[in-house]
Amino acid sequence: SEGGETHVDLPYQQALDQAPNPRGRVATHGGVYCLIADTAAWFAAARSRPKGSWPLTTSLNTEFKKSASQQ
What we know:
By secondary structure, the chain is an all-alpha fold. It contains one helix and no strands.
């Protein structure tokens, strides 16, 4: 799309779930969300990069404050 925007889909896959928490709930591992964010950022940056250059992730830091809730 235009303007350096990008869209990344990853259908739910049970194989990407982490071990159940003490309440018995399972969720997709947070690293999967970081991978999706990094991939989307790379493609958005690559679309608007100066000719002859490529974007590079040198650091990625994410803090998850609490679990997401299912609605």
